[in-house]
Amino acid sequence: MLSTLAETLLAIAAALIAYHHVGYPLLLRWLANRRRAAGVQAPVPPATRAEPLPSVTLIVPAHNEADVMVAKLANLSALDYPRDRLQVVIALDGCTDDTRAIVTAGLPRLEERLDIRVVEHARNIGKVAVLNGCISAAHTDLVALSDTSAAVEPDALLRAVAHFRDASIGVVCGGYRLREAGSEGERAYWAYQSTIKADEAAVAAPMGAHGAFYLFRRKPWTRLAADTINDDFILPMSIVAQGYRAVYDPAIMAEELERTRSTQEFRRRVRIGAGNMQQLVRLSSLADPRRGALAFVFLSGKGLRAVVPFLAVVAAVSLAVLAIAVPGWLFKVPFAVAGALAGAVYATLADRTRPVPRTLRWLAYLVEGHAASGLGALKYLRGARLPGWQPPNAAGDTDEPAYLSREVTAAKRAFDLVVGLLALVGFAILLVPIALAIKLESRGPIFYRQRRVGLASHDRIETFDLIKFRSMYVDAETRSGAIWASKDDPRITRVGRFLRKTRLDEIPQCLNVLRGEMSIIGPRPERPIFFTKLEDAVPFYIERTFGIRPGITGLAQVNLPYDADIEDVRMKCVYDHAYATQLTSVGSWLRADLGIFAKTLKVMALGKGQ
Questions:
Q1: Higher confidence at residue 63 or residue 257?
Q2: Domain map (residue ranges) of the chain
Q3: Is there a contact between 199 and 277 (Cβ–Cβ < 8 Å)?
Q4: Which CATH number among 3.90.550.10, 2.60.120.650, 1.20.810.10, 3.40.640.10 corresponds to the domain 53-259?
Q5: Total-model pTM
Q6: Strand pairing class (461-469; 447-456)
Q7: What does each C-alpha distance from 221 to 279, 294, 486 come to in angstroms?
Q8: Under DSSP, is residue 4 helix (H, G, I), strand (E, B) or coil?
Q9: Predicted confidence (pLDDT) at residue 109 exceeds the cutoff of 90
Q10: What pLDDT, on the 0 to 100 scale, is given for residue 381?
């Protein structure tokens, strides 16, 4: 049993890792080349001063940028764009070096060519707060953002605004290159990322922008949450999520002026890893299958990247178990090879000056990147504050009582994301046949959305819209009102009865899990109309979701049938509290959740649901 489980986990984890690193880039390249051959993305000529040009606010956030500020000011003064259509805002964010003096000294010359404004914050409030303030104050058609350490060509704005002639375009991203890479691996990584971004743009949309330089329409912009990490992904993709298109134009090139040191690079990648997990949760709407190619690109690229470190751990542990448990050399040889490669990578990272083959150095850079990404993801999941993105009293720094330890919270969330993503793969495969079966039997939508009660705390109770495959007739409650389901409920369709018995109707709830509204395993989420009645009738009913998000499945769900009356709810409440007592450590939580998960798979396979 253990070896079978290990083989399954190894196969799934290895397949997803290989798909993300090899299969997806190759498939993406093939799709992109087909669209380019069809002339879908013809080059757009730059705009000229002779035509009506949109107004632009160019914002440059700066915190202790004395080393590059002189070069940035010179780069800004060389921009080719009408002075009356461009305002440049330099936002000084609590600078304690000579940045302010350099800007002050350069203003007289800049004001001859530019409409320039300096915004200064006496203390460091963070880049997100700076962006929110400056963009809110902008009243132009477009907003451009540029890092202080990046230089752009003089015609960058004219090239970029040309794309906005198309009203459907909401975001324009430029290319990115390093003047001097910190390592060979870093140079190769950014060259690869530029290729991927161009192919993503040809197929659907570039996944995020290079923060060095990009533009967007001011009107659809919404304020960033205070704890936003990867603002250059969240901001542009939030506009894409509203239905606008994003384009990538490599002719608009931004060059990084600073050379990254290895210690800085690792910290930056930890932060990016935390941001990858955050954006997967907050922009899970991009994974909606109805978005087509956009969902494919998001899930295959940024979506999988956030969970690859965890998949690698699953693969390594599974391979180790199989090498020990299975006789023969079938798994022992791959385990030995993996161990040798791990040792070589460690030696390469421990002594970066030692000459090694280029392939090994690239592999070391990749492994180090995933390690940093996994560390960042865990920090985000457990609510740790990363310098530079979470101000005091932001998310993760509250007086909220800790019902679960940080370790259990982080492990449970990681489990939710990995299982949720894997289930969505199955969801994508089953979507068409299930949707056809639902539509052929009865009129109405494929999905059913219903308000449910979620996480409870000492001062609030969250609610959310639960998503399921529709299993009832559309007018099921117009006559009878809201009632509990019964064993032979006439409101349930024949297809719906099968979906309920196999629990397949629950699969779309994985989207709720990725959004952070639900967990894979936890108490059943109740409807508000029943919740108020049950709170009075069942002792400690509300406490069952204190600090624990409701689940798709749970200890009560796998041991008891659907609720038919108050007595059923009382019994389920006992199971829910019994489950909560098992969350005292990572070990006890893991044993409990794996046991419940296994029972759930058995219920689905044998069709024992109701």
A1: 63
A2: 1-36+261-397, 53-259, 406-606
A3: no
A4: 3.90.550.10
A5: 0.64
A6: antiparallel
A7: 17, 20, 47
A8: helix
A9: no
A10: 72
